[in-house]
Design a protein that fits this description.
The protein is of the alpha/beta class and 327 residues long. It has helices at 17-20, 26-29, 43-52, 62-66, 83-92, 107-118, 134-144, 175-178, 182-198, 290-301, 310-324; strands at residues 8-13, 33-39, 57-59, 73-76, 97-99, 124-126, 151-159, 201-209, 220-227, 232-238, 247-254, 257-261, 269-273, 276-280. It folds into two domains: 8-129 and 288-307, Rossmann fold (3-Layer(aba) Sandwich); 134-283, Dihydrodipicolinate Reductase, domain 2 (2-Layer Sandwich). It contains eleven helices and 14 strands.
């Protein structure tokens, strides 16, 4: 059973690109929180990260970091294929855990992780940081305040050209490492914040294919889904389109208005209602995970609650599995 602490000392497993700006620095910028140790299998890179970010300790062995008595909580920032093994070690060591998204390779793995933490009364969080970014909080407030009226439907369009390194088949397009492809990496964020705004998805189905043959993962996905509330949704995700066709739009329709916004940029939120059109621009903070990490630290200190838990994150993994048929 976890006992709140006044200060949270963090260790990071996997200090790669995502930790350089998005997350890593935030652990020492949030009040009552410090980053005290990092781990990477490449000792030279681990030492370099520790030096550049003023972290006192570095390791090449995850178990050593997890069991360090000066580490209170662990952030797992490795590719998804190692999330479950590392998370289970963290649970066994009796530490709270913050896991990168998607939470695991499948919904089944998510359930295994949740069970391990709940059986020991340990907090488990997942890095779906859009739940705390101003842009998405604003959209949620429009829905909660009734500006759109009764919500009827959602449409997602994420159309991207081939990424420069896709032909080299990086881990994100290797299903054995990532659980899928760009769809699993990016749509997981979208389904999580829609879950936060509209509640859980009750049914989902779809089709997935590999049209360009550049890598093993799906490069196009279409899906339909129904929320428990009765709201219906559709989506198209294509990662091999022409640059001129690129689009990143989520639209939510109600019987009193419509809101559209971007999932991956700080483009303006556009709302059209009975009194006309409005828009809001809300830039992302320098370290985009910092607002969510603040809520994680608050909960670990016993003075707040984090909105992104293992249970909420697992629901998005379930939707991804249903749409792609990857169980």
């Amino acid at each position: 059973m976890y006992t709140p602490k006044n200060e949270i000392r963090w260790g990071i497993i996997g200090c790669g690109d995502v930790t350089e700006v998005k997350s890593g620095p935030a652990f020492s910028k949030v009040a009552h929180s410090r980053l005290v140790a990092v781990m990477r299998r490449d000792g030279e890179k681990a030492a370099d990260y520790a030096r550049r970010h003023q972290v006192p300790k570095w390791y090449t062995d995850a178990s050593a970091l997890i069991n360090d008595p000066e580490v209170d909580a662990v952030y797992i920032a490795t590719p998804p294929d190692t999330h479950a093994p590392y998370a289970l070690q963290v649970a066994e060591a009796g530490r709270p855990c913050y896991v990168e998204k998607p939470m695991a390779l499948s919904f089944t793995q998510c359930q295994e992780i949740i069970q391990a933490f709940e059986s020991q009364g340990l907090p488990l969080f997942v890095a779906y940081y859009r739940r705390c970014l101003a842009q998405f909080v604003k959209v949620k407030s429009l829905i909660d305040e009734g500006a759109l009226g009764n919500i009827r439907a959602v449409n997602i369009r994420l159309i991207q050209p081939v990424k420069p390194d896709d032909r080299e088949q990086p881990w994100r397009v290797n299903p054995e490492v990532s659980g899928g492809g760009h769809f699993h990496d990016l749509a997981s964020h979208q389904f999580d914040f829609l879950d936060y705004m509209l509640g859980p998805v009750a049914e989902a189905a779809g089709m997935a294919g590999n049209q360009a043959g550049l890598y093993p993962a799906d490069d196009i996905v279409t899906g339909t889904f129904r929320f428990r509330s009765g709201v219906l949704g559709t989506g198209t995700w294509c990662f091999t389109a022409a640059p001129a066709a690129a689009e990143d739009t989520v639209e939510i329709f109600g019987d009193m208005g419509k809101v559209s916004f971007s999932s991956f940029s700080a483009s303006p939120i556009r709302f059209t209602g009975e009194k006309g059109a409005q828009q809001w621009s809300m830039p992302f903070p320098p370290h985009v995970q910092q607002p969510l990490i603040q809520t994680v630290v608050d909960q670990l200190r016993g003075v707040g609650e984090c909105p992104s838990t293992g249970r909420t994150a697992a629901r998005s993994s379930w939707v991804l599995d249903q749409i792609t048929g990857h169980r």
